[in-house]
Task: inverse folding
C-alpha cells in the first residue's frame, strides 16, 4: 500500500482537517500565552504492524514516520506494566493475552515525544480507529513557555486524569474535540467553524476540567458555580474574600468550625451568603474551607514543617477579585488561572513592548516618535485601578485647540517623564475622556471628549463607549489629513490594552506572488493537484488582506473553474468564500524585499 493510499483512511481531504485544527490551536492558545506557539499534527499507527506509519503534515511536523515505529511495542510495555500493577484485582486473568488499549497508545505517543524531544511539551489524544489505523491527534508547546507558568504534578484518580495546569487541561479538551471531528458524525468540515466550537468554549471546557484538580474531583460543576458566585450580589455587594479547597483527608487540616448542613456551591444563594464571612476577614490563618463541592466550615492548615509533606499538600484558593472575576491560586503562591466574564486565561503582560513600539513606528511615518517614552506612559496607565484612553496624535497641539471646548487643555504642554509619570498620570486620567499626547510623549490635554462619526463595519456592541469612541476618532482621522496620524490606546479597568488601529503583521510581497503561482501550477495539468491546490489557496485565504483587487479577481476566476473540475474529479469540492480587496491594505504592510535581512519579519 502506498503512502498516499494509507493517508486516504481519513478521506481525500484529510490534511485539510489537520490544517484547520492547527490554525484553531494557534488562535486558542494565544488566549493563554502567545509564546506557547502550538504545533499540531496527526499520526496514524497501523493496527497490523505491516503498513507504514503516516504523518500529516509529513513535511512540517518535524518528525519522520520512522520516529513512531516503536509506539506499538511501547504501548505493549505500558499495558503489561499496568496489568502487573492490577493483577491482584483480577488474578484469574493473569495469563490472558495483553490487549493494547487506546489509553496505552496515547501514553506511548506522549512518552516517545516527551522523553526524547525536550524542546516541546507534547499531548496526545486517545486514538480514533479509522481504516485499519489508530489515528492520534498531537499538540506540542514550546517547553520554556509551558514551564514558565505555575503548575502541579499531573495525577490520576482511577481513570480520571487531573491536569497540572490550565494549559494542560485546555490541551486535553482541545484534543478531545479534534478526535471527535476526525471520527465522529461530522463528515464535512465547516471552514468557518471547523471544530463546532469557539476558542472561548474550549477555554471554558479547560477551566471546568482543571477545577477537578482544584476541588479534588468534587462536583463537576465547580467552575460554573464559582462563576455564578462571582457575579451574585448580597445586599448590593459583590463577592469578596477567598475559599480554600482542602481535601477532607489532608493530614494538616485544622477545622475548628464545621457546618452541620454545609451548603453545596451549586446552591448559589446559600453559598453566596457564607462568602460574606470570607469577605469580612483580613489576614489570619482561618478561611472558608471546601472539601470539593460544599462549603464545609472554617479552618485552615496547621504549620507544615516537613518539606515532603508541604510539596505533596495541594491546597487551592479561589480568590474573588471583582464583578464576574476570580482567580485560582495554589497555596505555595502560584496563580494558576484567572477568570473574567466566565472565560479562563493566564496572567500576562497586557501588550508586548515590541508590538507597541512597532505600531508606533509604523503609524507615525511623518514624525520622529519616542517609542520608549510612550511605552512608559502606556505601562503606567495599565497599572492603575481604573480604565482610561490615551490618544497619540501627530497633530496633538492642533487637536487640543480644536477640541478645547470639550477637554481640559494644559496651559503649557508637559513631557510625561518617569520622575512624575505615575502621580501625574493618575490625576490626569481620573476624569472622563482621553489623554492627548504627541508622538514624543508630551501631553497637551486631558479629559478630551473625542468626536467622529460611526464607521460602517467598525466598532462592536460588545465593547464599551471608550473603545467605540476610539474607533470613530481614529478612523475619522484617517479620512481627514488635518487630524494628523493617530494611534489610540484603550486601557480597560482589568488592565487589558487594545490598540486602535491594531495593525496586521507585515509580510514579504513575494510570498503572495509565490502562492498565486502555486495555485496556477496546481490547476495547470489535466487533473488538479489536490494537495498543492488547497495548500496554496488556503494560505491565500488566510492572507487575503494583502491581496490587490487584480489578484482577488484572478483567484476568484481560478477558484470557480477549479471547483467545477474538482466536483467532476473528486465528487466534491470544499467551498471557499470569494476574495475581496480590503480597503485598509496599503504598501506599508509589505516588508522590504531583502532576503539577507529578516529582522523586520513578525515573530
Result:
Amino acid at each position: 500500500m502506498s503512502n498516499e493510499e494509507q493517508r486516504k483512511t481519513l478521506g481525500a481531504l484529510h490534511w485539510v482537517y489537520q490544517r484547520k485544527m492547527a490554525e484553531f490551536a494557534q488562535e486558542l492558545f494565544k488566549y493563554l500565552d502567545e509564546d506557547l506557539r502550538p504545533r499540531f499534527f496527526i499520526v496514524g499507527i497501523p493496527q497490523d504492524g505491516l503498513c507504514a506509519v503516516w504523518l500529516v503534515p509529513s513535511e512540517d511536523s518535524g518528525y519522520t514516520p520512522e520516529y513512531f515505529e516503536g509506539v506499538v511495542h511501547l504501548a505493549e510495555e505500558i499495558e503489561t506494566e499496568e496489568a502487573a500493577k492490577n493483577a491482584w484485582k483480577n488474578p484469574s486473568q493473569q495469563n490472558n493475552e495483553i490487549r493494547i488499549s487506546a489509553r496505552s497508545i496515547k501514553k506511548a505517543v506522549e512518552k516517545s515525544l516527551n522523553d526524547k524531544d525536550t524542546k516541546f511539551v507534547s499531548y496526545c489524544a486517545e486514538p480514533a480507529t479509522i481504516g485499519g489505523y489508530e489515528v492520534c491527534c498531537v499538540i506540542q508547546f514550546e517547553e520554556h513557555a509551558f514551564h514558565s507558568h505555575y503548575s502541579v504534578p499531573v495525577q490520576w484518580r482511577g481513570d480520571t486524569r487531573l491536569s497540572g495546569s490550565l494549559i494542560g487541561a485546555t490541551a486535553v479538551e482541545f484534543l478531545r474535540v479534534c478526535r471527535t471531528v476526525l471520527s465522529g458524525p461530522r463528515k464535512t468540515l465547516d471552514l468557518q467553524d471547523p471544530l463546532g466550537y469557539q476558542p472561548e468554549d474550549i477555554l471554558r471546557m479547560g477551566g471546568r476540567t482543571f477545577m477537578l484538580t482544584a476541588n479534588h474531583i468534587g462536583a463537576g460543576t465547580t467552575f460554573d458555580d464559582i462563576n455564578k458566585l462571582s457575579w451574585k450580589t448580597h445586599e448590593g455587594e459583590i463577592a469578596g474574600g477567598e475559599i480554600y479547597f482542602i481535601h477532607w483527608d489532608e493530614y494538616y487540616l485544622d477545622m475548628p468550625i464545621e457546618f452541620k448542613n454545609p451548603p453545596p456551591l451549586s446552591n448559589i444563594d446559600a453559598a453566596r451568603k457564607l462568602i460574606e464571612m470570607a469577605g469580612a476577614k483580613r489576614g489570619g490563618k482561618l478561611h472558608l474551607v471546601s472539601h470539593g463541592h460544599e462549603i464545609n466550615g472554617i479552618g485552615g492548615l496547621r504549620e507544615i514543617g516537613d518539606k515532603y509533606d508541604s510539596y505533596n499538600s495541594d491546597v487551592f484558593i479561589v480568590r474573588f477579585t471583582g464583578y464576574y472575576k476570580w482567580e485560582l491560586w495554589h497555596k505555595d503562591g502560584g496563580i494558576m488561572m484567572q477568570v473574567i466574564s466566565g472565560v479562563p486565561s493566564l496572567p500576562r503582560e497586557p501588550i508586548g513592548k515590541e508590538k507597541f513600539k512597532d505600531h508606533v513606528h509604523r503609524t507615525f511615518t511623518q514624525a520622529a516618535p519616542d517609542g520608549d517614552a510612550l511605552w512608559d506612559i502606556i505601562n503606567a496607565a495599565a497599572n492603575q485601578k481604573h480604565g482610561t484612553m490615551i490618544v497619540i496624535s501627530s497633530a496633538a497641539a492642533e487637536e487640543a485647540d480644536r477640541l478645547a471646548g470639550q477637554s481640559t487643555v494644559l496651559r503649557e504642554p508637559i513631557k510625561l517623564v518617569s520622575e512624575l509619570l505615575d502621580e501625574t498620570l493618575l490625576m490626569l486620567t481620573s476624569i472622563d475622556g482621553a489623554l492627548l499626547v504627541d508622538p514624543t510623549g508630551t501631553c497637551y490635554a486631558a479629559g478630551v471628549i473625542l468626536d467622529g462619526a460611526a464607521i460602517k463595519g467598525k466598532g462592536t456592541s460588545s465593547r464599551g463607549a471608550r473603545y467605540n469612541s476610539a474607533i470613530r476618532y481614529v478612523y475619522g482621522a484617517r479620512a481627514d489629513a488635518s487630524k494628523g496620524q493617530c494611534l489610540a490606546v484603550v486601557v480597560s479597568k482589568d488592565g487589558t490594552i487594545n490598540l486602535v488601529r491594531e495593525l496586521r503583521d507585515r509580510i514579504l510581497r513575494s510570498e503572495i506572488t509565490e502562492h498565486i503561482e502555486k495555485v496556477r501550477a496546481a490547476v495547470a495539468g489535466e487533473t488538479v493537484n489536490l494537495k498543492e491546490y488547497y495548500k496554496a489557496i488556503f494560505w491565500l485565504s488566510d492572507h487575503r488582506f494583502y491581496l490587490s483587487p487584480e489578484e482577488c479577481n484572478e483567484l476568484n476566476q481560478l477558484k470557480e473553474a477549479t471547483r467545477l473540475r474538482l466536483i467532476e474529479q473528486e465528487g466534491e469540492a470544499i467551498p471557499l468564500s470569494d476574495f475581496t480587496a480590503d480597503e485598509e491594505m496599503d504598501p506599508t504592510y509589505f516588508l522590504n524585499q531583502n532576503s539577507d535581512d529578516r529582522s523586520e519579519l513578525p515573530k
